[in-house]
């Protein structure tokens, strides 16, 4: 009955279908419903106003692509049992369930030192209890302890369905059509050899294009200088709020308040069920609703940072390939002193840092090419791919933000 | 300097450009930035997860189409001065600025009796003060007191740029491709005759298609039965919260609290500047953040309604062409009594009502066709349009909601 | 081996896959390959330059949608055996194989009195011989003599996969985005009841939109007045060529020559294998290559008509809801006399006629709605569909063409 | 009057508008109308059935992008006079007017040694005569003899509107979505500095993506191995036809016959007006209509090659990074001898060759980046573009074709 509505509209793939009963039930769970309230791209919508899509929709999209991949591989006579297919579906569905709101900013301020994958695993473990162990295989695949290694590569590698969907989805909603990738084409060229996920040789140029699209999305969207400015503003704002919370009962929505007043480590998350339950209530609405209240508050630093965020009065950003001179930064901070802020306060307004991205790395789950003669090689070694070799160079950029 | 970034990405039209300095400044104003935090389609994303787009983006899109329309009309030697063009841009940009969060639900619960257009006008008046009277012509066009009547029709008629953009945008983000309309084509066929906005004869089929697309969007998206269920749930929940607020200090974010505790009428909005200022702080985040707190609260009615909304545990809905039998409703309410709720409480869970839509009406700003022989006729009279004539019939449907 | 390449790029659906070995073999057959050389929309590209797509591509697209439909119906537990699925695939693949080049024009000039469906059946019969009877079930479905009637409705009714694909494809390539229909959505709402193909009730608005889109495509593209002018020009030109062929050895490519010099009736096509073989060699290239030669020929009527077609110097067209006055036509013809053409010749340049279309008819395979209560009704009776009722009115328009 | 219809549907950009009277007149000229009968991608539709678009449509698309570029540059206060804008429009419109049917194949068989750009210029010169010298500035820009050098770069450089449109158009119609480029975005980032067309620094990643998309289109579409096989088949077939024409009166359509029987050099084209007139009559229909006749002819080599092309019975192709061993080729030719062909004949069926492409070259019109500090550098030197540097490596591949 309740399972009848198994078709979900998606502007990108047309229709998303929910393939297994248990996946439908997991989607209905409050842990997963919460992802409806967490934007996939945090504050990027301040630059790309269409980028309002949620982690909920991304998870369903990645599920869709995973199901497609299973179909294609089965047609190529790769054995994937029904149990494995279901588990793979669960694993990709829940791969990002541990994300908090504004994940990057949060990890640098309120839940520092805890990686969202660890929280994802914690959520999965709790759901496994609730669902009588039916997520066990999914967890093994997620942790890469399942015997068939290629299953993990479908959901976690440099050519996984997570990236495939998020690049498509982020570029679609941001309106950056250049980030669109030919997911369907790449999936059609996937295969498995020696228990490894591989791309058939004719797919080399599509993969190259995928890597360049990803590179473009990083520098043009994810690490767009104004997005960096906004996110760092949020980090500073949350740090200030936490600082103030030490000495006063600063307003916050209940879910946020706990994390503002307590410093949480991974060990406590694992030991105290109450904490993960609290974390499961935290979403974008807690952050922004609190920011709105703080914007009218008494602390002049916090209120100004909050107003600046809400009204998109973002700091000026400079980008450079070299680290910024400390004298330059000092000079800018002094200007804040002149405006009546003290030194400690000024560091909330003038700040610098760096961002880094590699289009392709050789350490992590590499992209393997299956040559027509049966050999499996790394894509950067495939003849003529001068290009992918070049993409291995990590790129680092430095930023400097200060009030307009 | 700050005006440099005048190009905004839009997945639908590619790039939105900001044509006038003052429009750029209005976009930067907190009143307008607030629209970033108000979803265009309220709770529809519970059915169409992509429908997360904001009133901010819609306003920019409608502005874009209005600029296009001005270009096309000028090419056809319709006189539109620069002053009028700017004013028209301002008027369309701000046409929806009076919307509160979850506008429909709000108008039925917390700010009942006040239409969002009235609030839009109030915001415009205040902005006109701030901007030294530079919005005067825009306000005249918006109120339809400006001599050239066709200007108002561009932004407020049955074929206006508001509808043109929202149909395109809503169908795009919802993933309901059938709602897409050929805005560019229709705009190319617009003209002005006798100070009226008209469509050239060859555009008849495009307009027919536009009307049918709109009809489809109403019944398939805006009035989708699950969306109705969710919105009515929100109405009930807010009514309960307001009821409880009379006797206790119910939690609410500051902006919401005022409207929960006070019954506001249009007259007070006009007289007390503080109220419109408070209203300008109200957005989706106030509603959902409060709902989240209430979901853990003590009132069993309010907490259950809130949980049901957050976890998408929506009521069952039945749709009918006839009004539901009161005995049927009574029976369902009695089932709630059996579950321990009293009669008053049960009405929050079992409820019925009706929705209505006309694809085309003859009263309001009609769609006029300019025949090749120069005559101007109503589109429903244009020969062969049996069809549009039929679309004038209003359609009413009744719904009945109750817990699963 | 040769069957490996079973994936074909399609800008509309992404990838077309070829589901059965025999379908792959049929595609490779010269009868079917010939469709690569026949444009789906004849001369429409003179108005819509993108409309260059072929009957080959349409047939593959309709096959794709048919396969989807089979999948959806099977999920709803409609029984379709593998043999039936294959036969249905064959039937839709070959449904248009009998089309000649510029089909409409040809049927009014060179192969008059023979409907392309009859030729399709003839081709199928011959292929059935070649393929050892493996097309027998397909032919039964095509002729609607197969017991399960709903199978025929999938490929031949007012909501069949032929229309579904051609509306999508024609509007896509023509760049008339308003003709796009939600094929995938409609397919998802198909079902079978009482051996009839039906649409589930919630699909009513999508079907309405489909009918209106089809209506728009007729009047905006297929019966666009300039397209009518071009096609009638071609009809006249071919009539003139046939007329001249009676008294001289007019140039023509070999395949065309036979049909120019002989008047063929259905009976001869059935009796003389050589004729269908000759017909199977006729394509767009014969017509246009001959027109090019004729444009430099001696007959001043034929050469001018040919030049006018090649250089898109099309006649002026007037459209009216009433038949044109014969005195008007006479007057125009007299102007041709003044230019030195005789009366007979002038009728090639001045001509009138009418075109007609019904968006929905009640005679032919109707569109049935499956109500939630299990009843099956005609869509025009479904409550609130004033609109579809209106669409039943046939629309007729008269045209008058004459030289600029 | 006749200029009223200045809006042309385009599936890619929506609507193409014709900006100047003279451009409208040039479009109407038979030289330009002929491009309606020449496919942009020759035989690629045998692999990508949607790739039926014509050089006519591409020229209009490139014109559209050029007009956009002019708009953008003018907004950035680059001076482009109305006369220059018109001339630039003419130059891009006519840039490909010298292409014959199946241009690559033709240049290797029938009009060998003559580059299509030279013929384009010849056509322009003749049109300039007809249009009373109104194309003079356009010709100067086309030849790069006009003082403002950046104008030529807009229509002829490694980032010109020709490439911008053909990549978009070819990938769109072929259904290879990965080839889509963000033309609008790149255009928005163009500027002029020191009389050079430059890309603003922030556009680096878009340009990189453009180059990689182009590389992909080359290896995936233009040089797709089956496309190579088909085109080489056509080359061989035309060579055979020319060979036979030396000793017999081989059938051919009149326009083709001349070029089959005569070897034409550039000098004759310039000297003999009749020849360019004949060339202006040659299009796809001459080639394919003749191939159809030849397929039933007596020469067993020619007839078989023609049948193979028409029925898409293409040779088997092998691709390698090394030249193929001559012994391998000999062996394959011997197999043809065994089938009764003589040595000379067998070379029409067994053949090898190579194709080459560079994604970016440093010799020709380079892509210049305008740094924020005002410096202009080559894109491959822009910091972090390891990648574009790598793209400079030319890639060469060898192919070997032989009958299945």
Question: What this model shows, in words?
Answer:
Four copies of one chain form a homotetramer. Chain A is of the alpha+beta class and 404 residues long. Helix content of chain A is 51%, strand content 11%. In chain A, the strands form three sheets. Chain A has a four-stranded mixed sheet. The first copy, chain A, has a three-stranded antiparallel sheet with strand order 5-9-6, sandwiched between helices. The first copy, chain A, is globular. The mean pLDDT of chain A is 92. Chains in contact: A-B, A-C, A-D, B-C, B-D, C-D.
Features:
homotetramer, 4-stranded mixed beta sheet, 3-stranded antiparallel beta sheet
How many helices of chain A? The count is: 20
**Inertia-based shape of chain A:** globular
> Ranges of chain A with pLDDT <50 over ≥5 residues?
none
What's the oligomerization state?
homotetramer
Number of strands of chain A: 9
Q: Roughly what percent helix of chain A?
A: 40-55%
Going by helix content, strand content and strand pairing, the class of chain A is: alpha+beta
Largest interface, with counts of residues having CB < 8 Å to the other chain, equals: A-B, 49 and 49 residues
In short:
Four copies of one chain form a homotetramer. Chain A has 404 residues and is an alpha+beta fold.
Secondary-structure map:
4 copies of one chain form a homotetramer.
Chain A lengths: L6 E4 L3 E4 L3 H8 L1 H4 L21 H21 L6 H12 L9 H5 L8 H15 L5 H8 L5 H7 L5 H14 L8 H6 L1 E4 L2 E5 L3 H19 L2 H21 L8 H8 L4 H6 L1 H7 L4 H11 L5 H11 L5 E5 L5 H13 L4 H4 L4 E7 L10 E3 L5 E3 L7 H6 L3 E8 L2
Parallel strand pairs in A: 4-7
Antiparallel strand pairs in A: 1-2, 3-4, 5-9, 6-9, 7-8
């Amino acid at each position: 009955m309740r399972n009848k509505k198994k078709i979900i509209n998606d502007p990108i793939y047309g229709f998303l279908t929910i393939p297994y009963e248990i996946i439908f039930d997991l989607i209905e769970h409050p842990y997963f419903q919460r992802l409806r309230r967490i934007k996939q791209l945090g504050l990027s919508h301040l630059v790309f106003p269409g980028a309002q899509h949620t982690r909920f929709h991304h998870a369903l999209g990645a599920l869709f692509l995973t199901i497609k991949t299973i179909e294609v591989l089965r047609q190529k006579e790769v054995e994937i049992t029904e149990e494995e297919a279901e588990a793979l579906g669960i694993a990709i569905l829940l791969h990002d369930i541990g994300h908090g709101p504004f994940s990057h900013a949060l990890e640098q301020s309120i839940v520092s030192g805890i990686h969202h994958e660890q929280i994802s695993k914690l959520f999965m473990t709790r759901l496994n209890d609730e669902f009588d162990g039916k997520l066990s295989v999914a967890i093994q695949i997620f942790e890469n302890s399942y015997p068939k290694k290629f299953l993990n590569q479908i959901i976690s590698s440099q050519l996984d369905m997570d990236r495939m969907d998020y690049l498509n989805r982020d570029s679609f909603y941001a309106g950056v059509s250049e980030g669109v990738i030919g997911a369907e084409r790449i999936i059609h060229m996937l295969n498995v050899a020696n228990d490894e996920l591989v791309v058939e040789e004719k797919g080399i140029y599509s993969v190259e294009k995928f890597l360049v699209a990803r590179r473009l999305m990083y520098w043009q969207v994810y690490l767009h200088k104004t997005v960096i400015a906004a996110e760092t503003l949020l980090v500073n704002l949350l740090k200030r709020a936490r600082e103030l919370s030490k000495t006063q009962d600063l307003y916050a929505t209940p879910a946020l308040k706990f994390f503002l007043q307590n410093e949480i480590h991974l060990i406590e998350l694992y030991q105290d069920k109450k904490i993960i339950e609290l974390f499961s209530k935290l979403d974008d609405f807690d952050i922004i609703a609190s920011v709105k209240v703080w914007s009218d508050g008494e602390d002049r630093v916090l209120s100004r940072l909050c107003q600046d965020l809400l009204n998109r009065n973002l700091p000026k950003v400079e980008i450079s390939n070299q680290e910024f001179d400390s004298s330059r930064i000092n000079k800018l901070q002094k200007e804040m002193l002149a405006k009546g802020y003290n030194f400690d306060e000024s560091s909330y307004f003038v700040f610098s840092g760096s961002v880094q991205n590699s289009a392709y790395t050789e350490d992590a789950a590499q992209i393997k090419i299956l040559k027509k003669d049966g050999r499996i090689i790394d894509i950067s070694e495939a003849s003529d791919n001068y290009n992918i070799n070049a993409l291995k160079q990590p790129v680092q950029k430095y930023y400097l933000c200060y009030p307009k």
